[in-house]
Description:
ABC transporter involved in vitamin B12 uptake, BtuC, 14 helices
Amino acid sequence: xxxxxxxxxxxxxxxxxxxxxxxxxxxxxxxxxxxxxxxxxxxxxxxxxxxxxxxxxxxxxxxxxxxxxxxxxxxxxxxxxxxxxxxxxxxxxxxxxxxxxxxxxxxxxxxxxxxxxxxxxxxxxxxxxxxxxxxxxxxxxxxxxxxxxxxxxxxxxxxxxxxxxxxxxxxxxxxxxxxxxxxxxxxxxxxxxxxxxxxxxxxxxxxxxxxxxxxxxxxxxxxxxxxxxxxxxxxxxxxxxxxxxxxxxxxxxxxxxxxxxxxxxxxxxxxxxxxxxxxxxxxxxxxxxxxxxxxxxxxxxxxxxxxxxxxxxxxxxxxxxxxxxxxx
Length: 328
């Protein structure tokens, strides 16, 4: 067997850990198991759940996008400004999506055309995109939106605890999973991250795929920006500050290798549940945002350590000795 068994074991471990955390919270944390709190917890992770999808593909391809939260903020500002001048909702959504695509294309061009490291590029655009948001709107905010849009950000789906804001993620997650695991594009993404030289000599159009991944990251971040704006009924340049930490933590904790070439969305989904539960429990325990950030930062370090340790352990087991296949 290949290291697919190792992935399944890691996914199983995350699933058990997430379920145990949920069970503990339901039993011992007052207010956790209420429909209102569950709905709020899911809604609070809607944007991060969306953005982690393209982040997984980028990290597997040995790239990263640290500017995703800034693109979210910038597209939120673009959306709010278009609404504020009296434009119809579909036009505002289109403008936000185009702004996200442009931001992603800018990142992709710097990485693929100029051969600059994506870590450095997106660290710079992290500040630049948010700065553009401040140039457009300053420290002001837009708070007046159509009722239908606000209803999307507030209400649940029927009598369920599922908020409408999670629907974009539920629609996109299967698409990303199929592309990554079942298509030639997914195999090429694994090949690029696993061994770039071999992928290049095999005829994989690396720069085109990398460029496309950054555009997808920008577009999905724009969708997250629209969702965030609906949920908070607020468009401003300082939206989603610090979201990058949670998103990268979820991806790496979910078993995506920081060195590229390995990862599956199954583990990432369990990591998303785990981080959402931890965030919610900390909030219900009156632990503030700074302390929550410390916990998530520690979780990121633990995920890096655990991932490398687990890989070494699985390699020592009989089922872990075969070479990894890109589709695993």
